[in-house]
Amino acid sequence: MVDALTPGLYIVAGPIGNLSDLSPRAADILCRADVVAVEDSRVSAKLLRHAGSDRPMIVYHDHSDESVRARLIARMGDEAVALLSDAGTPLISDPGYKLVRDARAAGHAITTIPGPCAAIAALTLSALPTDRFLFMGFLPAKSKARGDTLAEVAAVRATLIFYESGPRLAASLSDMALALGDRDAAVCREISKNYEEVRTGPLTDLAAAYRDTPPKGEIVVVVGPPGEKEKASGEDADALLREALARLPVGKAASEVAKATGLDRRALYARALELKGQ
Predict the structure, then answer these.
(1) pTM of the full predicted structure?
(2) How many percent of the chain have pLDDT more than 90?
(3) What is the per-residue pLDDT for 134?
(4) Which residue has the higher pLDDT, 122 or 235?
(5) What share of the chain is helix, strand, coil (3-state, %, to 5)?
(6) DSSP 193
C-alpha cells in the first residue's frame, strides 16, 4: 500500500515542453495526491498519464468561482491537494497565489516541488547578465499601455524577462526598443520542445526579423540591462545647473541635475551656490 501524503497543498512544477523534464518527486506527488487542481484538464491529463497517475482532477484557474477555491481549502484539512499549471511552475504568470494565500491563512501545510520555469530557462539561454533580473510576465496588449509599463522599468539596472505571444511579438519588440533603447535581447521560443529556437541581437533587429513572420509557440523575451551612463563633464553640469536655476531654488536644481547625471548632489549644490552668486 502506498503511504498517504500529509494533508495540505503541494505546488507541483510540471514540464514546459519535454514530458521527461517532470521530476521523479513531482511524479510521485501527482500519483499520491488525493486530488489534482489543474488549469486545463485536457492538458494535464496527458501529464498525469505520463506520470502514471489516475488521481481525480478539479479545474482551478483565474476565472474559477471563489467557491472552487473554498472547496479545495476545505479538503486540505484531511487530504493532499496538488496544484498543477498547464506548463512550468504554478503561480508564475499562472493562477495560484490566492490558493496559497488562503491555504496559509487556514493553517494548512504548504510544500513546493520545484522544477521547470520558462522565465529562468530563457534567462540561462540568453547569454545576458543573470546577476540581477526582473520578471515582468505578459505586457499589456495595447501599444500605449505597453509603452507606459516599459517606461516604469526603463531605468532598472537589471535584465528584464517578458512572456509574449507570437502575433504580438514584433510590435512588443518595437515598443521595447522605443522605451528601453536598442538593447541586446534574446527571443527564446518553444523551450525544451522539438522546435526550440533562440534568436539574439538588438531589439530593433529582432523586431524586423519577426515583423512579416510571426512565430508560433510559447515565447520568452529577455532584454539586457541599460548601459552605464556617461558622467557629465564640469561644463555640462554647469550648463544644466544654470538652466535649472532659472526655474528652481538651489536645492531642487541640484537634485534635478544629480538625478539626470548621476553626479554627487552635495557637490552640485555647492557649485549651484557659486553660480548663483556670480
Answers:
(1) 0.78
(2) 75
(3) 97
(4) 122
(5) 45, 20, 40
(6) S
How many C-beta neighbours within 10 Å does residue 4 have? 11
117: closest CA among 185, 15, 25, 219?
Answer: 15
CA distance 216 to 252: 51
**Inter-residue contact 216 to 167 (CB < 8 Å):** no
Q: Which residues contact 66 (CB under 8 A, 6 or more apart)?
A: none
- Please, what is the angle between helix 250-261 and helix 265-277, to 10°? 130
For residue 12, give the nearest of 105, 118, 91 by alpha carbon: 91
The cell numbers describing 227, all together, are 548601459
Compute CA 212 distance to the chain's CA centroid, rounded to the nearest angstrom.
26
Mean pLDDT of 147-175: 95
Residues 185, 200 contacting (CB under 8 angstroms): yes
265, pLDDT greater than 90: no
> Which residue, chain included where needed, has cell 496588449?
141
Give the three cell numbers for residue 273: 551656490
The residue-averaged pLDDT of 42-67 equals 93
User: What pLDDT, on a 0 to 100 scale, did the predictor assign at position 2?
Assistant: 61
- Single out the residue of 52, 64, 61, 133 nearest to residue 93, CA to CA: 61
Cell 495595447: give the residue.
142
Q: Average of pLDDT values for 180-202?
A: 95
> How far apart, in whole angstroms, are the C-alpha atoms of residue 120 and residue 257?
37
Taking the C-alpha atoms of residue 204 and residue 189, their distance in angstroms, rounded to an integer, is 18
DSSP 166: T
- Where residue 159 falls (left for φ over 0; alpha for ψ -120 to 50; beta otherwise) is beta
How far is CA 126 from its chain centroid?
Answer: 15
Q: Is 194 exposed, middle or buried (0-12, 13-18, 19+ CB in 10 A)?
A: exposed
Spell out the SS3 assignment of 189-200. ECCCCCCCEEEE
**Inter-residue contact 110 to 7 (CB < 8 Å):** no
